[in-house]
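Per reviewer request, we include the raw input and output of the structure prediction for the construct analysed in the revised manuscript.
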Amino acid sequence: MSGAHAKETAGSDLDPSQLRFITRGVTPEEVAAVTAVLAAAAAEQAAASREAREDRGPDAWARTQRALRSELRPGAGAWRSFSG
């Protein structure tokens, strides 16, 4: 495996040592190519998953941590914005 290829797969969750090829006579170049394609697909899927989480807005835990509404104060003109 070349140094550049090792850097590409090091950042992903794909462990090339756990790949098992059933086809006999697979060359090191073919192994590297398959590993690169799988690493790219895994990275793309992880990026899409992160984007989906970011697009949803705050999760339930974050929403429960928001500050409560301030105290309601009765008095003259206090409800003006609610009158028809």
